[in-house]
Amino acid sequence: MPEGLAPGAPLVLDLLNYIEQVEKLKTKPTFSVPSEFFVAYQHELEGLPGPQYNLQVEGDDVWLRLPRLQEIAPPEPDDQLRPWVTLSKSPDKAPELKSEVIVLEGRREVGRERLDAHPEIRELFAWYVDYMWEPWALAERPRRKTIARYNQLFSLQQAISSEGAETPLELARGIGHAVWKKDGFGTPVKYPLLVQVCEVTLNEKTFDLEVRPRDVEPKLDADCYAEMELPGVKQLKAYWRSALASGANRVNPFEPSTFEGTLKAAVGHLDPSGAYEVRTDDVTPPSPTDRLLITNTWVIFGRKRSGDIFLEDIRRLKKKVEEALALPSVIRAFVERGDTEVRVRPEQPFRGLSTSDGGAGAMELYFPMAYNDEQVSIVQKLHANDGVVVQGPPGTGKTHTIANVISHYLAQGKRVLVTAKGESALAVLQEKLPERIRPLSVALLSDERDGMKQFEHSIQTIASSVASINPTRAAASIAAAEEKLNQLHAKISHVDRTVAAYAGKHMRNYSFQGKEISPEEMAKVVLERAEEHQWFDDEPPEAPEGKLPFNEDDINALRRSRMRVGDDIGYVGCSLPAPDVFPAWADLLGLHRDLVRAKSIDSSVTQGSVLALVDSRLETFEKAQALVAFLDERLALKAKLAGTRQPWLDTLTKRIADMQPADPVLKGLLDVCSVVRRLEAQRRELVAKAIDVPSDAERNEDFVEALERLVVGKSAFALPFGKGDARKLFSAVQVTGSSPSSAEDWKTVRELLTWRTEARKALAKWTSLSAEFGLEAATGNLDTEFKKVAHWQSGVEDVRRLNFDFDAKLHERLAEVFGKATADRMWDGGETFVALVSSSLQAHVDKGRLAYAMKRVQ
Question: CA 177, 183, 185: angle at the middle one, nearest 5?
Fold first, then answer.
């Protein structure tokens, strides 16, 4: 064993070296930039409208931002020219003139007109092409190129985000494009020397595509030169390693000082006749020649994910192994010979739903979801072994099992790392975890940037939860939970023993009429002779050792007593008072029921199933009565919110619960709701007036100005011509089915326009606030969206009432009636505890009403 290495380390290093070499054999040198997924050279992007380069966004480098542009349709010819023109949507296909057009009258063809008969059409067409279509095409062609590039990069981004485990893709940016057709080597080089792996993300607000460098070192891609067996490759790689080790600036394609030294060194080491060329105006990649030429240009391309990260992980792992003082047994088990004997290891017993009576040394099984014996076996094997392999086809519950195992180990304070080939499997597993455990999971999914944001958010959430824990109260809650758990296990064990005892009775034989028979045979005998013994409807006492505790004389005495007293045999031997001494039967029955109910409540208070009041003062009882009404109103409000079935209500409730009543954002939302409520009342009044005005008329300044003139009794327009759009709008206005005829009618129209303007403002504020609270935005038709928001605003105000008028005051009200210690239980008990409070209050109120029964008895 080499000196200084831990036991087992040489074999582990040999295994890692083997894996490293196998991975290297899979990698083939790249000579040309791959184009099957996406490729964009510098000269193809520069000059296009839209792309932005080398930006700083939230302290992060964005090397390329590609906006989502929309196609602009070609300009429409005028009415006279339109029937004669065949117009394409593409700026590369010029419009054409038709030789003839069909003349229609309605839908019926009445004739045809030839182009020769309309020389003015050719003049209009020539003017349209020269002064309208050509300027549009000139501006639209580069836009369409940007749109095409965006679509290609978007497809790659979607493929990366939904990649399969077998064909993962990545985006890379090559710097220092090199070309070379080396003599004696058949394949020319057309590939960048430096390659930085990037990530491409979709900005969810602007839908721009943003390309950023990933947080990994750039690679000197010299494999193709090593394939040529160039002696300078080794020196070039040494230069690159020293450049990285010196802490030089990170390679940036827009800062020549970060990469020029390496590119020049490459020319010097690889080809004595080669050259490094700085290009500024013409950045088109040159064609390969018999000498190496490296330019300062860049290229962005998609490719299958390289194994560099995997190889780097292997190198880091080898370094850790070399530095380790001792290797874990599970690591050494991969390379050392195993035991030649199969040894039976004792299984650790666990207390769970199916094994509460685990005996001495039993451990708790923390499975929050349903499970079977196989899942228990997995935990038992994990307790005694370094690892367990579980196999099963899809749909057999592997994800469910993993979620249970994770919960079990988290409950013991252990950390669990879950990895998978595909991201979807991890996402499904995270959703499978119980809701209260899910915040403890830290998911590194999606792209690198979003993954780190999720990681930071999860850590902050966990840290916030830990900081808010009251150690004393938490310890008390844990102790109470453990005690309750022990009680539940005891009850389950008792049920198991009782079932086992009954099973034993049903499985043993009994001596009956001189022979041994089974309980089944005895039951058949009883059923066959049922008619003979139906007269005996009493339940006899237990017979120890099969002997009845009475004889024939006892039966004869009982028969004589039955003949004397009939159905009143239960009072044999009793001395009964005279009937006139008793109160009326109805009074006795009422008193009896009241006393039983009062004692039942006292018993429930003693047992803890009904919460005790803080004291017996009249003031406390009155507060309890008021708290009943408070909880009933709260319950009705929660039922109303549950009946609305809006998916965003839960998110809104959690968001408002974390806010103060004076929060300006919350105040803004409530102000919008108040305005919407007022506008909804106005809308209903306007609907009754049957006003019909074209949509968006209020945005036409000429229409609004003319309407103001009509309201004061003037004519709509000062001049009899012009403002054609406004005139068309006026012709479509109707009030109660006809055109407005008086200033009052026009005032009614103005009221509708004023309402529309205010409604648009309210919807704009609602949309602005919707993202803050997780609400649905209002972005469609004005009338339709306003009706939705008007329906939603009552839910928003109900959520506010529930949080501030009820939930915020609930603890204080409970403390007044039950005391602070009992009120504190609501923090952990939630709605289940509130239901217990409600039932307890009702019991105490009932007990107060039953107090008169004790006075009447006395």
Answer: 80
556-595 burial, b for 16+ CB within 10 Å, e for fewer? eeeeeeeeeeeeeeeeeeeeeeeeeeeeeeeeeeebeebe
Q: Is the alpha carbon torsion for 217, 218, 224, 228 positive or negative?
A: negative
- Lowest mean pLDDT segment, chosen from 317-326, 437-446, 819-828: 437-446
The phi and psi torsions of 33 (rounded to 5 degrees) equal: -65, 125
Element (H, E) at 271: none
Which of residues 337 and 270 earns the better pLDDT score? 270
Residue closest to 57 by CA, chosen among 218, 211, 184: 211
How far apart CA 98 and CA 118 sit, in angstroms, is 12
Identify whether the C-beta of residue 199 lies closer than 8 Å to the C-beta of residue 214.
yes
Amino acid in the structure at residue 82: R
C-alpha closest to that of 801 among 676, 636, 643: 636
Count of residues making up the chain: 858
How many angstroms separate the CA atoms of 87 and 95, rounded?
5
Q: How far is CA 180 from the centre of its chain?
A: 51
Phi, psi for 175 (deg, rounded to 5): -125, 135
Cα dist from 132 to 77, 84, 144, 669, whole Å: 9, 16, 18, 47
**H/E stretch holding 574:** none
Q: Are strands 169-180 and 363-364 parallel, antiparallel or unpaired?
A: unpaired
Cα–Cα distance, 570 to 680 (Å, whole number): 74
Largest Cα span, the chain: 137
Q: How far apart are CA 577 and CA 346, in angstroms?
A: 72
Cα–Cα distance for residue pair 426/483, rounded to 1 Å? 35
SS3 string of 634-645? HHHHHHHHHHHC
Residue 258 near residue 252, CB atoms below 8 Å: yes
Which region holds residue 257: left if phi is over 0, alpha if psi is between -120 and 50, else beta? Answer: alpha
**How far is residue 399 from each of residues 107, 373, 394, 413, measured CA to CA in Å?**
64, 16, 10, 21
Query: What is the DSSP code string of 354-382?
Result: S-S---TTPEE----S---HHHHHHHHHH
CB atoms within 10 A of CB 655: 19
For residue 242, give both structure tokens: 């020293």
Cα dihedral angle (268, 269, 272, 273), rounded to 10 degrees?
A: -70
The first and second tokens of residue 331, run together, are 């690591």
DSSP type of residue 353: S
Q: How many helices (H) and strands (E) does the chain have?
A: 27, 20
Report whether 14 contacts 22 (CB < 8 A). Answer: no
The alpha carbon dihedral of 403, 408, 409, 413 has a sign of: positive
What is the per-residue pLDDT for 1?
45
**What is the rounded average pLDDT of the residues 244-250?**
70
Interval 579-609: pLDDT, tens: 777 677 676 676 777 666 666 655 555 555 6
**How far apart (Å, rounded) are the C-alpha atoms in residues 720 and 838?**
75
By the 10 Å C-beta count (0-12 exposed, 13-18 middle, 19+ buried), 175 is classed as buried
Q: How would DSSP label each residue in 822-840?
A: HHTTHHHHHHHHHHHHHHH
CA dist 153 and 171 (Å) reads 9
The C-alpha atoms of residue 310 and residue 2 are separated, in whole angstroms, by 27
